[in-house]
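Re: Re: ligand-bound prediction request (bumping)

Still looking for help on this. To restate: I need the protein modeled with zinc ion bound, output as structure tokens. Inputs repeated here so nobody has to scroll up.
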Amino acid sequence: MSYYNKRNQEPLPKEDVSTWECTKEDCIGWSRKNFAGSDTPTCPLCGSKMIDGVRSLVNLQNNSQTASS
Ligand SMILES: [Zn+2]
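Reply:
Sorry for the wait, this slipped through. Here it is.
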């Protein structure tokens, strides 16, 4: 028995996305920079200041063809 399937699913493609990250320690608030204005936003959850960050997010709109040879 194995925890892993033998036929591994292809890992979902991820891309690094610029984000705003909430500075409050116990807050999970963050947002994509794409959707934010040019000014430093405040956290929608707690209202704290947000700082630059980067997240690897799954690119759900990946249209690239399956690699085949
Ligand atoms: Zn917050």
